[in-house]
Amino acid sequence: MGKTLIIAEKPSVALDISRALGGFKREGEYFESDEHVLSSSVGHLLTLVAPNDPVKGKWSFTHLPVIPPEFGLGPADKRSEERLRLLVRLLKRKDVDAVINACDAGREGELIFRYIVQYAKTNKPIQRLWLQSMTQQATRDAFNDLRSDAIMQPLEAAARSRAEADWLVGINGTRAMTAFNSKDGGFFKTPVGRVQTPTLAIVAEREERIRKFVSRDFWEVRAQFAAAAGTYDGRWFDPKHTKDPLDPEKRDSRVWTQAAADEIVAACRDGVGTVTEESKPSSQLSGLLYDLTTLQREANSRFGFSAKTTLSLAQTLYERHKALTYPRTDSRYLPEDYIQTVQQTMQTLTEGKPAYAQHASTIIKNQWVRPNRRIFDNKKVSDHFAIIPTLQAPRELSEAEAKLYDMVVKRFLAVFFP
């Protein structure tokens, strides 16, 4: 009976898989058991290359557009070349008769694996490991529910399309702009990219607005009022104010001439008025569970974390600490069959920090984990669901990791409260 080769995206993930499945023995850069051979990529090993690509000195409009009849692949660097030799050798082993794609469960992970298989020129049967959580039990469960290659082909097509479109835009845009800027002599490389160019345009537009900004004087009228309960400060505002779409600087409390401000002061000074205070209780539902974008936005607002920092922290909490589910998600909902897992997670939280335990116990006691379209909705879950804590309580978190984990747990608890 042949063996199945498992290819993970990173060495750390391969190590976690070996521990979850058990029975593996390390053989240098890979692991082997009676049934499996296990190794990993190291991120993107291969990059697109075009056959007969014109060299730098021939970057002219004459050679554009560059649209190859087919895309070739080449190693990204020397380190990648060494890892590729290992993976190709393992893929071509005679005792390996099937392959499992255990790269990250997303478009980029799919592309990394497909490029390796294409480069090795192998057509052995493929199955897909789709991990939502890195705990050992979740890993074992995922191996018992491998996805077929046919199901993953649309994701492969999306990954290849994105990569090839990026390549075409980057190569042709860069060479066209370089040729234009170099037409009077010299070589002035002008990079263009699908993401970087629009982003640069946004920055440039903002910078232009800043440079064109003209400061204007305005006045605010503030007064001190004496009341039975003491004194308080107040600020004048215009109750008839409406927003001016052509001038966002106009606000209800701003007065644009000193004469108008003096007029308001004269009308109010030493006057007598009636003060009323109105308040009424209101309730507000918590926000939805986090997807990556919302988590990045709120982490920036609360802690000043950049989007890159938040992603890195969330990835560490997912991979190293096994404390969060897969972070690269655009969904804020959970699958409808995830209720039991959520109940188990709540039970785990009752055994942790007192701040979590109290609220988790309340949720369990009142049986608030139940079908709810605001939380559980299959129609709003695609490849991945919302970011939530796992059954594994983290230990020895850094200060930044603890802050992000705390955000996710508190939102997870809050969403179940009525």
Would you summarize the structure shown here?
This protein is of the alpha/beta class and 418 residues long. 41% of the residues lie in helices and 12% in strands. It contains twelve helices and eleven strands.
Task: Note down, in words, how this protein is organized.
The longest helix has 33 residues, at 149-181. The protein has helices spanning 11-21, 78-91, 107-120, 136-143, 149-181, 196-212, 258-268, 292-303, 307-319, 339-350, 354-365, 399-414, and strands at 3-8, 25-27, 30-32, 36-40, 46-49, 72-75, 96-102, 126-128, 147-148, 222-227, 230-235. α1 (11-21) packs across α4 and α3 crosses α5. A seven-stranded mixed sheet has the order 2-3-4-1-7-8-9. It has a two-stranded antiparallel ribbon with strand order 5-6. A two-stranded antiparallel sheet has the order 10-11. The protein is an alpha/beta fold and 418 residues long. The mean pLDDT is 91.
Terminal Cα separation, in Å? 55 Å
Q: What are the low-pLDDT stretches, counting only 5+ consecutive residues below 50?
A: none
Q: How would you sum up the major sheet? A: 7 strands, mixed
How many DSSP E strands? 11
Map the helices and strands:
Blueprint: E1 3-8, H1 11-21, E2 25-27, E3 30-32, E4 36-40, E5 46-49, E6 72-75, H2 78-91, E7 96-102, H3 107-120, E8 126-128, H4 136-143, E9 147-148, H5 149-181, H6 196-212, E10 222-227, E11 230-235, H7 258-268, H8 292-303, H9 307-319, H10 339-350, H11 354-365, H12 399-414
Parallel strand pairs: 1-4, 1-7, 7-8
Antiparallel strand pairs: 2-3, 3-4, 5-6, 8-9, 10-11
Helix pairs in contact: 1-4, 2-3, 3-5, 8-9, 9-12, 10-11
